[in-house]
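Session log. Operator J.P. requested a structure for one protein chain; no other inputs attached. Running the standard single-chain path with token output.
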Amino acid sequence: MIVRRTLMISRRKFIQSNVLGLALPIAGANGFTAATGPVSEPTDSQAPGEGGRDYWNDWPEYMISHMNEARERRLAQLRALRSESDIRARIEKIRSTVWDLVGGPFEKTPLNPRITGTLERGPYRIEKVIFESHPEIYVTANLYIPSGRKGPFPAILAPLGHTTNGKAYRNYAYVYQTLARKGYMVLAFDPFGQGERYQYLDPRTGKALYGPTGEHSQAGRPMLLFGSTFAQYRAWDAIRALDYLLSRPEVDPDKVGLTGQSGGATMTMYLCALEPRIKVAVEVDGNSENLAGPSYSPPGAVADAEQNLIFSLPEGIDRGDLLLAFAPKPLLMIYTPIDRGTTYSPTYIEGTKEVHQEIRAAYKLMGAPANAGLFATSLPHDYDFFSRQAAYTWFNRWLGREEWGTDEAEFDESTPGELDCTSTGQVLTSLGGRTVVQLNSDKLKKIAPTNPLGNNLGDARIFERGARQTLRRLLALPAEKHPLNSAILSSHLRKGAQIEEFVLHSEPSIRVTGWFLKPAQGTGPFPTVLHVSERGKEDAPEETGDLVHLTKKGFAVCSVDLRGLGFSIPRSPGAGPVFYHGDNLQEDYAWASFTLGRPVLGQRVWDCIRCLDYLESRPDVDHGRIHGLGERGGAIALLLAAVMENRLSSLMLDSIVATYLSLVESRSYALDLTWFLFGILKHFDLPDMVAILAPRTCWILNATDAGGTPLPETKLAETYRRALGVYKQGDATEGLRLLVSPSYDKPKLLDSWLKTA
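Structure written below.
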């Protein structure tokens, strides 16, 4: 996990996340926005020999093109909104769609609340509360209650930004104290990975292994595999916190407000869409910019796991819709221009104004344009003095009394641990309960099929037909193929091997480049090995390498860079060097691709399929003997390509992660997000895909656990037990081999594999 650092108080300090801003707004005929600034246009890929080998431009321009298309589809929907009934219909669509996107609501179970202590602070008191958002998932919270006043009180729910100390963060606590002094009840609760709810503790020190964003993404990435997102847990904790708040007799249920800053503001945005019991909201310094905006520069406005609306753009939903769904209830957006290019993207100001203009247009159609407020503070990213003043004014106007004013008393300092609800300062070391990893595992057990392959060969064949259709949908493969426009860029003879550098077009804006090695003697056709590695193709021509060795055995080798790998690793964004400093661009592109509904793994599987098309176009390739050699993440892509295409006659999968299930069940994992596939575990896992290959030869070499450590043979046999059974029932027992071997034996294993394939 890349940790970003800055000296200023900013969301970057809180969440260490990666976002990029968006749009320049202009009101259309009905008030909805469209870009006035230049929309980024992808340039045409230049023919080999004309534009050079600038493959790093292809993936960014592919993303620009698809983001611009998604943006225009959504803007067309907004422009079609002409009446209050249109707005209400869109609000219903937003609410139901967002629930579907994040994974849906859970069944409500007993909160089992307890008060573990009380702090008397004169004009207010703080109750230390613990409740269960799920069975044995303990949420720690502070409830601020006015003293010496008669209720019922207006109440404020306060989701938190990405602070390490959670609800005890100074400026958040200052808001809660002041609101309580004025006559509001406030419930502030720790999210997973913050305050008293760290989930990944070092067993030696008891300290957190990751910061807040690190914990959120560490838990959130595996959730994608079973079709959920970390926003589901965050939103559900908040909804159950609201249930507790409304269970208190001192609360006026008709006067419930909501406010959060930074990541807490992003959760405020979710709750504006998902929780109708909220009456008034103040969103401060949130991720208030659409994912698909004008002047989009990839990877775009992505952040940690819960802040990315996975698969939302094909539905015509973007971040602005989360706030639009709150119409016509009073909503104040607060932002700081200082976040531009530091905490958020270089176009953050324009993006935030665009979102505000979108929601104001909706409010106008509902007859309440004054209910959509926008305020800019002049201080750095925080719940700063001016933001607090604006929030007090807004809540007093709509929930309390305007004469309560905006004055703040001196801050009541708390000693370290004084606001803790647990005896040790951490739920896991005091109360125990389930961890977020256990919650993920338990959830998966309820939805994953126990034996998708069935009990006999007939069942397996039925599964195979359905699985291919499901896999095509999950991968989101393109509906049509475009011309390959392949070309040989160079060709050289070296010590008995012909070495060709080639390029092909997987899609109109995506070039796949590779090396084609073949014996210098003879014209073929040669049996050919398609080699795919997450390291890229550059090791292929090494004089003493394993692949050159194969040409001496009469094989041709085609080694390629799938998009985003090797020479096609994308360029760094052209703006925002502070914002993008230290980013993991591979992961950022993965999040952006998920929001587009186009998983990177699906894009790379398509590249593999197009490489097969290229090999079939070559007269020097034996089309009946094309074999696949995949390494690490590349092995996953090649395996899924082989499931979709029978043209690969055999496979060797080197160092492939044995199961996606292991990623869900592990605290630590090594697989990059680009190799994840949304929702796959609701249907099948990688060993089931191996079974589909039967009776084709498949050798699995040094398959690994989640952390990348090779599994022992006994564990491999159990993991692939059902796949082995399918091969046996198909009279191809020797077709599936599970091997554990040192790396220096790989040349011999390659020879043996190709002899039997």
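Operator note: The mean pLDDT is 91.
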